[in-house]
Amino acid sequence: MNSNFHNAQNDAQIFDFEYLDDGLNVLAGVDEVGRGPLAGPVVAGCALLQSNDQASSSPLNLLEAKSLLAKLSECGITDSKKLSEKKRQRILSALSIQLPDFHAEFERDQSWPKNLGQDQSPTQLRVKKWKVAETKYTALWVNVVEIQAFEIDRLNILYASQKAMFEAYRGLAKEKLSGPTKRSLLIDGNQTLPHKLTRDCEVMSATKQIAVVKGDQKSLLIGLASVVAKEYRDQWMKYAGSIYPGYGLENHAGYPTKAHKEAISKLGVCALHRQSFKGVREFVNGQRENF
Q1: 287 pLDDT exceeds 50?
Q2: Taking all residues of the chain, what is their mean pLDDT, rounded to a whole number?
Q3: Does the residue 257 lie in any domain?
Q4: Which of 103, 160, 189, 263 has a CA 20 to 30 Å removed from the CA of 169?
């Protein structure tokens, strides 16, 4: 590993260390993957440090939290877009994060994802979580939340992405703790989560939100969230390609490549397509226009 890479990892480690204040109960990072594709879900990941005691509001053990962050640094975590599939999978393996067997999941539920083009409850979210590592007093958790194309069309892609990040964080942060709490949430990008999402959430009332531009390159927690979300979504789309053949979803993960646009022009749209997106809406209900 070259010295520049080592320096980048050390910078990320130091960045997260700066937010480990005395009395902090939770430090988390969130990121999303899949805002740009024409098809498939937007997926958000969250990586979170908190006390091992599920009922306690004990502050983080700072030495243990730093040791867990150091473990992430050793894995080579950075912006998922800069990592090959092989490197992302190596990171997940090193952290014992095993993604779902999507083939088995889809086989168990024959109606899914065929029903994704139909109306679904706004609260119908798919969530997966893993305990990545733990020490005596501290645990590192990671999870992913996916929001499907129908919800993206209903909400708009920005709000759906923010909702996915919010749900990913809320799914890991403890809803009720005994005593006052202090939480910090690092959010990739230049925006914090909107008030209309967070206003009725007890977890968010005690959470300081920090927007971090290029956060997946600066923060190990955001970087881990990015890596898990990216690999999860890519594997999801590979299997989706076998359910909806002809679009090449397994190759481009739903992004607007030339091959994908040509397939939509030829085949029309499927239940995974985002019908509000340019490049898809022109082909809804048989209305076909040039891209």
Answers
A1: no
A2: 86
A3: no
A4: 103
3 state SS of 148: coil
pLDDT at position 232 over 90: yes
3-state helix, strand, coil in the chain (%, to 5): 45, 20, 35
Domain membership of residue 31 (yes or no) is yes
**Single-letter code of the amino acid located at 143:** N
CATH number at residue 179: 3.30.420.10
Q: How far is residue 124's CA from residue 62's CA, in Å, rounded to a whole number?
A: 36
The candidate with the shortest Cα–Cα distance to 268, out of 244, 237, 234, 252, is: 244
**29 located within any domain:** yes
Do strands 183-188 and 26-33 pair parallel, antiparallel, or not at all (unpaired)?
Answer: parallel
283 or 115, which is more confident:
283
Tell whether 206 is covered by a domain: yes
Burial of residue 276 (CB within 10 Å: 0-12, 13-18, 19+) is middle
pLDDT over 70, % of the chain:
83
Q: What is the pLDDT of residues 171-222, one digit of tens each?
A: 998 765 556 688 999 999 999 999 999 999 888 988 999 999 999 999 999 9
The amino acid at residue 155 is: L
pTM score, two decimals? 0.89
Domain range for 154 = 3-247
